[in-house]
Amino acid sequence: MGKLSKKSIQWIIVILSFVLVKLFPTGELWTPTLSMFLAITVSGILLLAFNLLNNVTSSIILMFAYPLLKVCSLSQALSNWTSEAVWMTLCCFILVVLIQKTTILERIAYKMASKCNGNYIALVFGVALISIVARVLMQGILALVSVIAIVYGMCKALNLKGKGAAGLLLTCTFVYHDSNFFIYSPGYIAIVFKNAATVSPMPIDYFTYFMDNWVFIIPLVLTTIATAFLCRPKEPLGETTFFDEKLKELGAWTDKDKKMLTILILFILYLFTNSIHKLGMMYGFIFVITAPFLPGIEIGDAKDFSKVSWGGIFFVAACMTIGTAGAAAGFGKYISTIALPLLQNMSNKVFFAATYFLSVFLNFIMTPAAVMSVLGEPLAQICQDLSFNPYGMVYSVFQGISQLLFAYEVTVYMVAFSFGLMSTKEFAKPMIVKFLIQTIGLLTIGFLWWGVRGIV
Q1: Tens digit of pLDDT for each residue in 386-443?
Q2: d(Cα 110, Cα 443) in Å, to the nearest integer?
Q3: SS3 sequence of 55-96
Q4: How far apart are CA 185 and CA 187, in angstroms?
Q5: Which end of the chain is flanked by fewer CB atoms within 10 Å, N or C?
């Protein structure tokens, strides 16, 4: 008998996870419907995590398994396709494709690198600024991957390896990723918002989200400073004239670049003034992906839609379906019933801190999207039962799933690590420092500001 392949073992684990969960005895509290929900969820998450099938197929299986096995109705399982979050995610993916047809990001990156004049600390902050600009202009994993690729090119041009390369690549990644602490992400934190909203409505817009969380800019800046000094190489940087030459190759700003930049600026203004005009964020996203195709602008064409990451869109919808199905099965109420006796004398600050550390722990064994999908609804139910503000819970979960020690925990960090310019040790050191600074930031100035905002 031949040795089982890794893929075969993973398939066995997926199937066994379903069977083992179903073997748990059911009763008045742990009902057969709840048992089926958990069995589908655990096996579905493993199917996605092991990447045994393409994302579209795995997501479809997960979404339709719930109504097929009577956890929820078909209309409930598909209800997320009418939610703004899924459509905003689609718009983000289209926007990334359109921006990649311009040279906006390359121009910003090369200009920053040339201005640093061989100073590593300055270069780290230049990379951080590039990431912030890219995050404001674009959203989503593919957008960050394109920025990581640009920074990788900078590392190769400067012949940077080891901790020097780790400093640039990780700064690029965590600044972009953790900007989501204070810049709303319709395709990411929206997952936990949507699942928590199955308990009670949780309206949010860009301006309110920023006002709730702008204080986390401070820990992010401190993390960048710490990473710059921790990863600074002993040897001076190589020749930086390479970046000047690349800028010359790009030439003057093209009409396409100018048009796209104008559209992006209008888009950003629309999002951050939503609390004034109250037209809804969705229409801003529709504008930013349709305007580039209009006569006289013509940045995009029909071929661009074939480049969109449809797997990512189905993945987001599937993660939201976990929350919808869990609410239909009563998973949140079950968790709340079990947990309430233990939480009766707990303050909201202690609860939010515990939520944060739980999310950090779960991120070791689950994907960030899976953690947000699983925790959103039950923790929102606990917040409702204890009269805690659910926004603090959502923000705490999101900060927790953004902390990591190993690259495998978050896909974009795996991309940065996979270029082979750093060791596991060189990856882990800045991540530990990031965790310490941002944890202290959350528990001190974070909670203090949330108190001002009426969240804690």
Answers
A1: 899 999 999 999 999 999 988 767 778 877 887 788 888 899 999 999 999 999 999 9
A2: 37
A3: HHHHHHHHHHHHHHCCCCCHHHHHHHHHCHHHHHHHHHHHHH
A4: 5
A5: N
* 30 three-state secondary structure: coil
Give the type of residue at 116. Answer: C
- Mean pLDDT, residues 317-333 taken together: 84
Alpha-carbon distances of 7 from 20, 47, 58, 364, rounded to whole Å: 20, 11, 15, 21
User: Cα(403)–Cα(368) distance, rounded to whole angstroms?
Assistant: 10
Q: pLDDT at residue 155 above 90?
A: no
275 or 261: which leads in pLDDT? 261
Buried b (16+ CB within 10 A) or exposed e, 349-368: eebbbebbebbbebbeebbb
Backbone angles phi, psi at 235, to 5 degrees: -80, 145
Q: Give mean pLDDT, residues 293-321.
A: 86
pLDDT exceeding 90 applies to what percent of the chain?
41
CA distances from 368 to 332, 380, 391, 409 (A): 19, 18, 18, 8
In order, the DSSP letters of 262-331 are: HHHHHHHHHHHTHHHH-S-HHHHHHHHHHGGGSTTT----GGGGGGS-HHHHHHHHHHHHHHHHHHHHTH
189, 441 in Cβ contact below 8 A?
no
